[in-house]
Amino acid sequence: MQVTTTVNGEARTDEVEDRLLLVHYLRDVRGLRATNVGCDTTSCGACTVLLDGESVKSCTVLAVQADGREVSTVEGLAAADGTLHPVQAAFRQEHGLQCGFCTPGMVMACVSLLKDNPRPTEHEVRDGLEGNFCRCTGYHNIVRAVLVASGQDPK
Amino acid sequence: MIPAPFSYVRADSVDHVLSLLVEHGDEAKVLAGGQSLLPILKMRLARPEVVVDISRLSELAYVRVEGDEVAIGAATRHREVVDSADLQRDVPLLPYVASLVGDRQVRHRGTFGGSLVHGDPAADLPAAVLALGATFVIQGPAGRREVPAPEFFQDYFQTAVGEDELLLEIRVPRVPGVGWAYEKFTRRANDWAIVAVAAVDNRVALANMSMTPMRAVAVEAALAGGASAAQAAQAAAEGTSPVTDMHADEEYRGHLARVLTERALVTAAGR
Ligand SMILES: Cc1cc2nc3c(=O)[nH]c(=O)nc-3n(C[C@H](O)[C@H](O)[C@H](O)COP(=O)(O)OP(=O)(O)OC[C@H]3O[C@@H](n4cnc5c(N)ncnc54)[C@H](O)[C@@H]3O)c2cc1C
Ligand code: FES
Ligand code: FES
Question: pLDDT, tens digit, for every residue of A57-66?
Fold first, then answer.
């Protein structure tokens, strides 16, 4: 089937197999390889991207379902001049990553969370990120990064 | 994991869905949020030839107050149930329970109707609609029929919705001011319940204590006979047949059912 999808602001039409998963479309057809596949079973959140501004697990959405829609991946977050998005800057400042495998999905999940809840409490951050697993950081610095990105002092 | 090949059709109306289901029979599968179906297709536990996407049918996505009921379109997403001011006011149990389903990403795609038709005994919303006494509106080639909640959940992952039928709407009674509670026990974030208990006034339903969600009739009878919450909760495991799996055995699930039922009844009475 033909899909016309805007990814990080760039609209394109591609002929894809009906069964193609959104994450494979992004990585293999669009060449955007930041978004990772971790569990491949809708659990870990490594594949999180925004579909029309809402976080989704792109291993559990069909590419054809993104037809006519907007997808945002971590590659599209920074400004054209390289200035990091506030969530990216906060992850760097607070050391919110170690190996970095979960990071592209984690950052997109945080962007979605802050869109719905611009000043979350620490508990709301932890709860809001329950769909994203990180095997390295123990989450503390990720939570701090989200609080910093929302203009709060993580103490 | 990649699904076996299928043809994808984006439905443009309920009639379109129904005609495709009649045409393709058990070779067709309805796709709503895909949060249960796509993992099944990826694991190749199912290999439909045609996948009919209802997720863009706005005629199936709504929350409407109608008389003394609230009507919820089957393709209303969990997120929209959580955010519905009408439900928060008139049926607060449902937004609360929907907020416990999976995680944000799952709630951004998964639908109210999809969760119910899937018929997972460990799922949250089935127990909630059972405690509320919901009615299911189902459409098939023979027309439209209404099924009360106790007849909807028929067996393990088996509901009253036939292969050529579509769940259109779920109707729940408005219960503003009526005490309610939902107690869900899990060991991990974003997980299904090991056991969960829904209470609406003196009606109690259990998740994951049998092959289907079920009403705790012995508890309800004890309450009707004047028992306290603590006394009535002792009957919570009566008539149940929970599985033993890696999370819990039958005895522990029975214990959880009693403890969670007491908590739910106390919370509901205090609301
Ligand atoms: C990581 C994760 C965690 C989860 N945690 C929980 C949890 O804690 N509690 C919980 O209850 N659930 C949980 N779920 C399941 C979640 O609730 C799903 O959204 C739900 O089970 C299926 O809804 P869906 O809209 O995605 O349906 P789909 O996956 O699209 O469909 C499910 C089934 O229902 C059928 N179907 C869907 N809509 C209709 C309709 N209108 N008429 C006829 N047939 C239809 C489909 O053909 C399919 O057989 C979780 C899922 C994931 C991936
Ligand atoms: S790869 Fe999609 S949730 Fe893990
Ligand atoms: S930084 Fe390694 S998994 Fe999160």
Answer: 999 999 999 9
